[in-house]
What does this fold into?
Amino acid sequence: MIVYITTQGAKIVKEGRHLLVKKDGATHRTLFTYKLQQLIICGRIELTQPALAFLLREQIDTVFLRFDGRYLGRLSSAESKNVFLRKKQFLLLDDQEFCLRVARQLLRGKFLNMITVLQRIGRTRKNRSVDPCIQQIRNSLHNLEAAASIGVLMGYEGSATAAYFSGFRLGLDRDFGFTRRVRRPPTDPVNSVLSLLYTMLINRVYAAIRIAGLDPYPGVLHQSDYGRQALPLDLVEEFRAILADTLTLSLFNLRVLQDDDFERVLPEPVVAEPLVMDTSDTSLVAALNDPLGRMNCCDAESVFDIPSQQTLSHEETAATGNKLSIKLSPAAFRQVLTAFERKLATEFFHPLAEKRISYADALVFQARQYRRVVEGEIVEYQPLLLK
It folds into this structure.
């Protein structure tokens, strides 16, 4: 179970074998730690020392976010005891052939998923303006095999991503001021939601990596650096378009999110209001049943295929100076978190697993597949593709 704590001004305390979320003397929630896989604490919430020690002892991955969704840090459980696997991961950092091969496979999945999203935008909007964007991504895809270094691969990734977001904006029903990917701070509603969803997705990929027994620091695509956990940044790439981007389109196009759900604030906002949300909102349910942002003509089960054969990613960052940033209101923030968790809980048929699994399980499946590549059990990493 993944639990979000978003009640501003609350305190998490230990009571016996449980944790309680308290505010103003009242208990808002009881956390049964034997059910917890990950605890995500958003904003101004106090964690007492006994509660902190209990989380560490129970090896519960605990993530701290600012209320606007920006990552702050985490309490990590003990490292994997499989020292031989971790040693192999670090040794492979110096194996350029291995890194290039797997990095190409990761980017191939990302590029193909971006192309699929843009193709659906072009068909449903009857807008051929996406065609040059698709062609630019295809050019980058074609050039992957000839790339002789990770730096060259990242150059193609940057070019393809810029082209993708130029076409992505055409999938929105209305003009929300989105023209390109802007991270810090997000300057329009769409970038605000994308940033939040990418943060949550990377946290879930990190948890999947730990479940698979892998060390999160050594990756193949993103450069190793002091304190950088590169592997989550690598394995998240194929899932951005599948999960975060399509959900963003659905939330806006199905009017789950409206203009008044966003606040214009200075770059360092402070929010202290409690969250209120009606989780029975029928429009939210409709958005979650529409995995392609009101662009799908088929069931969710039929839009995934596996071929036989990202502190965040290499996204464009604009210099925003003293511009106001855009952030979700407390209630809308909670809506997006709820939508994301429901999206991850949705099941589809995974051809490689040969059974129905949830998107959350697919994150773990892909991490375990990567482990098999590291251990030499299989040669090719097979990304999850959107048809």
